[in-house]
Amino acid sequence: MEYILIIGANGKTGRIISKVLNNASGYKPYAMIREEKQKSYFENQGIETRIGDLEDNFSKAFENIDKVIFAAGSGGQTGDDKTTAIDQDGAIKAIVIAENHSLQKFVILSSMGTDKPEQVKGLEHYLKAKKTADDFLRASNIPFTIIQPGALTDEDGREKVEIAKHLNKPGKISREDVAQALVYALELDIIKNRSFEMISGEDDLKSAMESYS
Ligand SMILES: NC(=O)c1ccc[n+]([C@@H]2O[C@H](COP(=O)([O-])OP(=O)(O)OC[C@H]3O[C@@H](n4cnc5c(N)ncnc54)[C@H](OP(=O)(O)O)[C@@H]3O)[C@@H](O)[C@H]2O)c1
Fold first, then answer.
1. How confident is the model at residue 151, as a pLDDT?
2. What is the whole-number distance in angstroms between the Cα of residue 109 and the centre of ligand 1?
3. Whether the Cβ atoms of residue 114 and residue 148 lie closer than 8 Å to each other
4. CA 204 to CA 194: how far, in whole Å?
5. Residue 162, pLDDT score
6. What is the pLDDT of residue 205?
7. Domain locations in the chain?
8. Ligand 1 centroid – CA 147 distance (Å)
9. Does residue 126 carry a catalytic annotation?
10. 13: CA distance to ligand 1 center in Å?
């Protein structure tokens, strides 16, 4: 059994990741949440929680953890300062703690466009923050996968995607498919130490990830 810490577990994608992992064999999810009042949502499903705030010291949440899925983000309602604090510095802190704990894999939910932040008007700061975190992970000594999806939707998952290092076109993908991809990426050899962009398409999700690996 592998113990997986989900950072950002109470988010729209994080809740789906928690559910997918809880139903998958071989994994035990630990939902990292910020507030006690968020516990019941997870405990009602039999999912254990760990309290941790990315702007604070959250290393205790990593006790006995094997791998991490990082799906936190400051969201669109806050300013650039929070984007830096959560999407960039929060992710970097988590990578350092994961390294200190010699974790087996760090899977991060990034965003399409991070490779050329200056080309996406209005999102430059956000994409630069994500890129800084992605680059920090690439330079770390922990095995990783970086998933860079297009715009997230709340549609049902189809597990049909298009993936590439650079897709060179915009697109959307459901949070359900992204959650499933993050869970597949926990396997050590799937897309080890690489990043890829992903939108909804016609290729089977798991096969596409395996052939990209
Ligand atoms: N929206 C898009 O189209 C899009 C596209 C590509 C990539 N992404 C990325 O995908 C990720 C997930 O998106 P989403 O829409 O599922 O996000 P979301 O619903 O906004 O969830 C974000 C999660 O991060 C948590 N968080 C924020 N600040 C935190 C802190 N200081 N400490 C610990 N946790 C903290 C939130 O906690 P609370 O629940 O306590 O608030 C929430 O659970 C984000 O990183 C986003 O940038 C989004």
1. 97
2. 9
3. yes
4. 19
5. 98
6. 98
7. 2-212
8. 14
9. yes
10. 8
Residue-wise pLDDT for 51-85, tens only, equals: 999 999 999 999 999 999 999 999 989 999 999 99
Closest CA to 183 of 121, 105, 115, 129: 105
Mean pLDDT confidence for 32-59: 98
Q: Which residue has the tokens 């991490």?
A: 68
Q: Would strands 105-109 and 67-70 be described as parallel, antiparallel, or unpaired?
A: parallel
Q: Are 19 and 37 in contact (CB under 8 A)?
A: no
Are the C-beta atoms of 174 and 153 separated by less than 8 Å? yes
* In the predicted structure, residue 139 carries a pLDDT above the cut 90: yes
Are 144 and 108 within 8 A, CB to CB? yes
Report residues whose beta carbon is within 6 angstroms of any ligand 1 atom. 8, 10-14, 34, 53-55, 71-75, 86-87, 90, 109, 111, 149, 151-152, 175
Q: How far is CA 162 from CA 1, 16, 117, 132, 147, in A?
A: 31, 21, 21, 25, 12
CATH 3.90.78.10 is right for the domain spanning 2-212: no
Give the up-direction half-sphere exposure of residue 72: CA atoms within 13 A in the CB hemisphere. 30
